[in-house]
Amino acid sequence: MTASIDFKRDVLPHLIAILIFLLLTAIYFSPILFEGKAIAQHDILQFKGGAKEIQDYREATGEETLWTNSMFSGMPSYLINTRYPGDFSGVIHTILTFNLPAMAGNIFITLLCAYILLVTLRLNTWISIIGAIAIAFTSYNFIILEAGHNTKSLTIAYIPLVLAGMFYALRRNVWIGAAIFALALTLNLHFNHLQMTYYMLLMVLVWIVVELIYAIKEGRIADLIKRGLVLGIAAILAVGVNFGRLYTVAEYSQHSIRGKSELSVANSGDKTSSGLDREYAFSWSYGVGETMTLLIPDFYGGSSSNTRLDKDSQSYQALLGLGLPPVQAEQALEQGLPTYWGPQPMTSGPVYVGAIIIFLFVLGLFIVHKPTRIWLLGATILSIVLAWGKNFEAFNYFMFDYFPGYNKFRAVSSALIIAQITMPLLGILALYKVIRDRNLIKDLDKKLLISGGITAGVCLLVWLFAGSASFVGAVDPQLQQSYFPLDAIRADRESMMRSDALRAFVLIALACGLLYFYLKGKLSATMAMAGIGLLILVDLWSVNKRYLNDGDFEKRVVENHFQPTKADQMILQDKDPHYRVLYLPNPFNDARTSYFHKSVGGYHGAKLRRYQDVIDRHIVQNNLEVLRMLNTRYVITGDPQQPVQRVPGALGNAWFVSEVKTVNTPDEEIEALNGLDASTTAVVDVSKFKTAATSYNAEGSTIELTEYQPNALTYAVNAAQAGLAVFSEVYYADGWQAYLNGQPVDHIRVNYILRAMEVPAGKHTIEFKFEPKSYAIGNTISLISSILLLIVIGGAIFYGMRRKPVEVEKEVIV
């Protein structure tokens, strides 16, 4: 029999929590929700440029193209903007977020998932609300939104819900827990930021090791294995729902820069047998000393570009000293200055967990249930060490070279997402333990004061001895060239460090004082919790506002960004359906060009490896012949006097060649593009492909593109004699199928990245269609799994609620 539900006890507190989360979200993101504004999120604007052709095709046909020519001369759309109709999880996410707009919905769902985790751990409603705020309002969650990393944010948001399902299944009702876990992992995978999911798995791996050790010691290993098997089935179901996405991405990754290079010598950096270049992967490594930002946000100066200083700053006085009028000096401050002086190439802001949370985390190391604190401490240490990257080579290079899948990811500083969950979690468990067990924990007041003394003492030492640091940043030579007084910016960096150290000291002292007075009976539990919660909110909210505030929001952000320039308008007068454009000022880190044109460049973290090889070896080396064979008709110069130049001799969509140059290796193939006349000669790697002849008579043969769609190209051919046709399209075997007069035929790769086909004499129709089997298979499995997921969730909840939960132990986690 199911237990009766008391609305006031079992439902109302959670409704209040949801309303509080909605209120906090609405206040912080009021410009979005009530003023129709948006923020110029860099990666979102790049996404909109790269996805324009895909979305236009979807709107026109109701179908998925799966390929786009808008970036890097052509690539699969899997990691740009592809929908999988068999995956229902997007609808579930929309329901859970009340269809709130992006950014606002991201933070709300983070609050909700963190709250569910803490409630699952049996913390009371109010402490769970405080804990949800502590987890959701860590600075990184807001900084990545400002940058436009929305899918990363949502992947992180569902991590606490995954943990909630695991804990519930392993400690209480296995069926309800498994249902929560399956749903949470499904949603985590749905947003396809596998690096964040990978870090979650590392966090879980540490927990599993600890759990196994204690299960063996306590004689409950058999029960743990049974419950673990149920969770394993739930995980398979979650993967099944996302199988379409995971399958196509896994297939594509082998051919992308995340896969193995075919060249014997990598283009740059230390290279493993597969995966990213080591130098590239470790470019963003958190400094060892930079870890102090978890406690003191401006320990290393905050942002590398947009720190807004006030008129009391030394930089303001320096600007006045340079002769700038006060108004212009204030405008310069408003635009922001590069106050960051840490080891990373650049950063939008620090990873700040919160001074009070760090204090509570240290307290948790003394008083929280031993297995729990071992897990959370171990995961935190792992997180920090991974984030150090090249600054802790011995461990991290070993991980990169040997740990499965780790070499697929870059920006290792992101590993701190583990710490931004584990540290608040242990801290909030400590707070709950203090409130609940103040009379049961031996020497609790001493442990409280020791924890406060350690953390506040560190802050005090920083405040006292900040002047001993150098405050020399990587950007300083550029500032010196602009005649900006370096002494002024360095003095401001020191002032920022001291100010935040003192700020952290005060916050810790206040929080420690509140709990101490509670222990001594001078404050009620309600007052102590309210005070701690308010301090945490004020602390995190105020730091987040440094990096994402009302001044960052504008109206018509997207519309203004994609206003066609004079160069765009000139090029768009050409009504040919298919040619390419090179944006010369920043070709390979800009997708705005892709919004209007089919671009040789673009912006993407997983472009095709062979194409990247050609970029590195030829395009950036100004090999005009490569641009000609890619049918690059126009170059946007960035020069107002001559914004567009026509590329001489662009070869068009397809042409017949008269000669085949044979090579034996990929190294020879890419090298052969030097000095190549692509209009007459094709380079073929005979270790992979064969041609009927090494010379052809191309005289009198013509080929013309007659129909263009991103995933289907049709050519009219009039071949005077049998010949080899070369197409200015990127070769990608896992999906592109060639047809000659409606019949499937083989095609080959030439010139390292292009397609070619031997054509018999006569008039023919050639078609290329992108028909990847992985998408069809994956989407079918996703559909079946989605239906199963809904059935399993409903059945598990029904069955689980009818059964009395069998708990592993009375002391669940704290």
From TrEMBL:
Transmembrane segments: 12-34, 91-118, 125-145, 151-169, 174-191, 197-216, 228-247, 349-367, 374-391, 411-435, 447-466, 501-519, 781-801
UniProt keyword Transmembrane present: yes
Lineage: superkingdom: Bacteria
Keywords: Membrane, Transmembrane, Transmembrane helix
Family matches, as InterPro entries: Uncharacterised_YfhO (IPR018580)
The keyword Ribonucleoprotein is assigned to this record: no
Pfam families cross-referenced by the UniProt entry: YfhO (PF09586)
Stated name of the protein: Membrane protein YfhO
Organism per entry: Pontibacter lucknowensis
